[in-house]
Each structure stands twice: as C-alpha cells, then as structure tokens.
Amino acid sequence: MSGSRELVAKHAETPAIANLGDQAIAVSDRLDLIGTVSFLRRRLGIIVGCAVLGLLVGAAFSFFSHKTWRAEATVMVLDNAKQAPGSSPDETTAAVPETQLVDTQTAIIESQDMAAKVTQALPAGIVMPSQAVYDILMHHVSAKRNSQTYALTISYDAPSAREAQMVVNEYARQYAQWQVTAEQDRNLRLRKQVEGRLEKLRAQAQSDTEALQQYRIAHNLLSTSGASLAEQEISAYNLEVSKARASAVEDRARLDTAIEQLRKGSSGDDVGEALDSPVIANLRTQEGQLAGQVANLQSRYGPNHPALIQSQNQLQEVRSRIQAEIGRVMSNLQAKRNVSQERLSSLDASLEGARVKLADNNAAMVGLSGLERAANASQGIYDTYLSSYKQLLAAEGSERPMARILSLASEPKKPLSPNIPLVIALAAVIGLGVGVVGAYITDALFLGVTTAHDVEHNLAENYLASIPLLSSVHAERPPALSAVQDSPRSAFTEAFRVLGTAIDQSTTGRAQVIALTSALPGEGKTMTSCCLAHVLAEGGARTLLIDCDMRRRGISRQFNVGPDHPGLIEILDGSVPLNIDHLVQDRMLCVIPLGANSADSERLLTGPLFPQLLEAMRGKFDRIILDLPPILPIAATRTLATRADAVVLVAKWRDTSSFAIRTARGRLPKNLVNVVGVALNQVDLTKRAYFTREDPAFYYNKYSEYYT
C-alpha cells in the first residue's frame, strides 16, 4: 500500500508504530511537505506581518540613513621609458608597463602629495575648508587595477553626487598631468641650480686657462699643434738632418762611382748622370750619324777625299764635345757632394741647439703639467654642466604624461550606500526569516487544542465532534439558534448531530442525561448546549434543557428569561410547584431556566433534591441536557457532573490550553464522572485545512456541497 503510511500487523515491533485497534500505522520518515505548507498557511499572518515590518524598516532605513555616492574615473598607465622615439602618449602602440609600475602608480594616486594637489585645485570651499577636504580625501579615495589590464579605476565616496564627480575627475586630471608637472618642476629646479653653478665654473675654467697660457709664454712653451715650439723645431731639424744625410750619402756615392769608373779606363759614357743627360744623348745621336756617314764615304772614296775628311773632322768635334760634357757632369757631382756635406753640418749644429733649448723647456714642463690638468679639469666640469644645461633647455615642452584619461566620471544616478534594492530585499528576507522563526516559535509555544489528534494523543480523551465557527459556514452570520432552526441541513447543524451520535457511541447504554461543561468560561458550552438540545428535539427526542450555571445564567439569557422568573432554584426549594405535564404538553423541547439566585442556590443544586428532580424527569424526557458551569472556577461543577450519564467537555478551538483541559479533567473523578470526550467549539473550517489531514474537517472543501 503506497502513501505516507501503511498498515502493518499490530505485533510488529518497531518504535515508529502507534497502535490503533487491531492494526497499527507505521509513521513514514518522508518529508511532510503538505504539513509544512499547512504550517506556513496557518501562520501566514505572522510571516507576512514580519515581512511587511521588515520592508517598512528597510524602507525607513534607506530613506533616513546617510547616503554615500561613489563616482569612478578610469585612467591608463603608460611607460614613457619604453615608448618609441617621437611617439605621442595618445598612440595606442604605447609600451605596456610592468606590474610593479602599475602598483606604484596606484600608490601615487592614494598618496598625500596627490591629495594636496587635488585639494589646491578644487574650488575654494566646495564642501568644507581645505584641511578638512584633505583629511577626507586621504580616507575616501582609492585606486585599483582593472583585472590584468593597465587601466586604473579611481573612485571617491562623498555625501553628494556632484561632489563625488568633481573630486574624482580632478583626481584623474591631476594624475594624468602629474608626471608632466613633476618633470617641469624638476627641470626648472635643476636649471636654476645649473645656471648658478655654470657661471662660477666658467670663470674658474677661464682663470685656469689664462694661468696656463701665461706660464707657457713665460717659459717659452708656446705651441701651435699641441707640442712646444722646441719640440716642433727639433722634430723639423731631425727630419731635415735625415734628408740632408741621405742626400750627402747619395751624392758621395754617385761621385765615388763615377771616379771609380773613370779610373778603370772608362770614357765616362757609362756614368749614370751622363747616361741621363739629354745633351750627351743628343751628341751621341749626332756621333752615330757622322760615324755612319764616314763609313759610307770610306767605302766609296779614298782617305784623302774632302768629303771624307770633313765628315771625320765633324765626328772628332762631336766626340770632343761629349768628353767635355762628361767632365762637366763629374764636376757637378763633386759640387753637389760638397753642398750636401755643408748642409748636413749646418743642420747638425741647429739640431744640437734645439736640443739644448728643449732640455730647458722640459724642466719647465713639470709646472706646466699641473696647470694643464687644472685647466682641463675646470674646462671638463664646465663642459659637463653646459651640456646638462643645454639638455634641460631642450627638454622644456617635451615632457610626456605618465597616464592618459580613458573616461571621466559622470554624476552617479543612485547612491552607493545604502543600496536601496539590496536593503529592501535583505529587509524582506530578514523579515521573512524572522516571521518563519516567529511562526515556528509561536507554533511550538502554542498550547491550544486544534485537532482530533491533539484530543486523543495529547489529552488522551475521546474526540467527539468539531462545532464550526458560524461565520465560516454561513456568510450571513445569523445567530446560532436561528442557524440551527432555519438551516437544518447546514454544516453547522450537522455538527451537532455528529456530536449527539458521538455521545451515544461513547456510552454503553443510551445517555439520557448529558452534561456540557468546559475548563474555563467563554468557550461556548451554553450555545453548544442550546443547539444540541434543539437538534435532538428536531430528531424526535423529547428534550429538556436545564440551566445549571449560577454565575453566567447563559440559557436563561439566551431565552430572555430574567432572574425574577421562577426556575430551577424555585422548583428545588419548593416555592414553585413542578407540573411536569403542564411543562411538557406537546412540546419536544422544554427549557428550565435557573431562576433567582439565593443563598441556598448552590446547596440546592449540589444537594439530593437535584438528583431527585432528574429522576423525575427521566420518565418524561428522552434527553436531558445540563448546562454546567466551568470546572476550574466553580467547585459545584464537580458534584453536578456526577448527576449526568455522560459529560462532554467543550473546548474552544485553538484557544483553550491543553493544560487547562487536563487540569479540569483531573478535577472530575473517573469513577464518579463519565466524561465521554471533548468537543471542539468555534472551529474555523476555512482554516482547518491548514492542519492535520486526519481530521474530517480537513476535507470540508470536498464535501461542503452536501450542505448546500
């Protein structure tokens, strides 16, 4: 058998089984979602109330709390050291900076120096004095890196949207120009320092150079090419001496060679200078021609022929001229040798004088070296500062920003805190949570009797019936007696039939005298008694309704019987004779009001006269309904309950505490009072479905059409 429980044998040994007759119900360990939903429905008021209260608190907090606005601007960090020459910071090909550089820029944005710059740049008195603005900026401005990119988000929290926008945009501008401003300030400072030092260094270098030149002039250490004049003179003499010596040697060698050739019988024709002489070469040509002519004439003429003799004379003259020319060559060689020797001697003498002069200069070079080092050092320092000064001048206007602005902040449309949607949602969630917890606590602390299960298991009493709340089954809300009289087929009337049937089924024999009581006042026992009596009478049983509640006199008031009208008390004390036949006549329902109160009222009810009256009535009525006082406040109820065949405890649904019912039940001796069970009164059938499914009223919506 499927479902949340199944029937098993009664003797099955399991702790999760409750005995019911010959069978047992095994309690399932499945989650009872229907029960949870029912719980939420019946405690919906608390849950919704707490949720609404949470929403109201959240709305009030959002409306009245101090609001904070956040504005954000985005800047991009650039690494100027890695930019290509000539590129601008606006180009997208700018070099990507290192992570450490980005972290450094974040620290710069949050630094005191940046806060001071922004404070000075903001309009005077924008929000408060400058010092206060500075203190606030140090605590409310932050910069963070956007993921792994090189963009920085600058944020500022302020009490107004306009202030947040102005401050964060000024931060972005100041940071974007921070590097340029810093470079300009540094260059200006350095340029002023270099300018002041440069003039001093120039004067020092000039002074040292003048001292050096004066020393050179004084010691004849003048130079035009980096060396002294003596050194230059010696160098020139050495060169000239070398040339003169080589020339002298060459001239002597030529002369010696020519002499040696002549000595060996040479005619001088093989002398080198003669061979090179164009005059001798021309004469040799003429000699050849004349020699040919002589030979030709000799072959034709005799030795004395005039033409031959003339040619021979011409040939002899040419040869004489050749020898004369060779003599002049030899004389020229001798003269050249002599000139070369004289020149060499002169140059040697000049070189020796220059060397003596150089020795004197070298002695003066010791002081010159110190002066040169001092002059060179001064000039070097001056040149270095001058180069730096020119670089600083060239750097003016070429400063590059360290960052550029990607986006300026717009005026925020909604505050950062409180986050109204989040606060409202959180307040609603907290309210719902508190409502659920409050509902659970309320449900756990609730001690009122609600279902048949509460009656049978918590009170260990027999459950008889549930009397509906009249407004839950009748839209017109008529009086209870009118509803029973006018709507005999309604659910309200049927509940009393169920009660009567349950009373009969709970007694061994027919319960003729039925007493209705309750633990506490105000639980509706009087109305239950009246309606039950009417239903029994309508069912054909002659019924007598007796008012026994000396304090409330509920039945007497229900039937508009005043205390001056004779009733039960007058019958018991004998002041009014009881004519049963006259009382009954042809009526099916008779009512005996309580009558006037007297000092002996309680004694009369609890004494032997009341049981005698009931015995007398048993023969005339099928049912006798006793409306007894509540058990706990009235001691007489315990005695009156012993007069009835069956006692019904009426409990107000979800109002009467189970402890009160158990306490009241304990006041009725079990061996003297036959308590047949408990009837739940004023049960709201529209809410009964929120409780246990084991109660017939749970299914009221399914069978309510039977009462229409």
Summarize the structure.
The protein is an alpha/beta fold and 708 residues long. The chain is built from 26 helices and 14 strands. The chain has helices at residues 33-42, 44-64, 99-109, 112-121, 130-140, 161-176, 178-218, 229-263, 272-276, 278-300, 306-395, 420-445, 452-458, 470-473, 480-486, 491-505, 525-538, 554-558, 568-573, 580-584, 601-606, 609-618, 636-641, 658-666, 685-688, 700-703, and strands at residues 5-9, 17-20, 23-27, 69-77, 141-145, 151-158, 403-407, 463-468, 513-517, 543-547, 589-592, 623-627, 646-652, 675-683.
Keywords:
708 residues, alpha/beta, four-stranded antiparallel β-sheet, disordered N terminus
Please describe what this structure looks like.
This protein has a 7-stranded parallel β-sheet, with helices on both faces. A 4-stranded antiparallel β-sheet has the order 5-6-4-7. Residues 1-27 and 81-96 have low confidence and may be disordered. A hairpin with a 2-residue loop joins strand 2 (17-20) and strand 3. With 708 residues, it is an alpha/beta fold. The chain is built from 26 helices and 14 strands.
Lateral strand order in the biggest sheet: 8-14-13-9-12-10-11
Distance between the termini: 35 Å
The shape, in one word, is rod-shaped
Main beta-sheet strand count, sense and barrel state:
7 strands, parallel
The chain-level structural class is alpha/beta
State Rg.
Answer: 72 Å
Strand content bin: 5-15%
Q: What's the total helix number? A: 26
* Residue windows where pLDDT falls under 50 for at least 5 positions: 1-27, 81-96
Q: Compute the number of strand runs.
A: 14
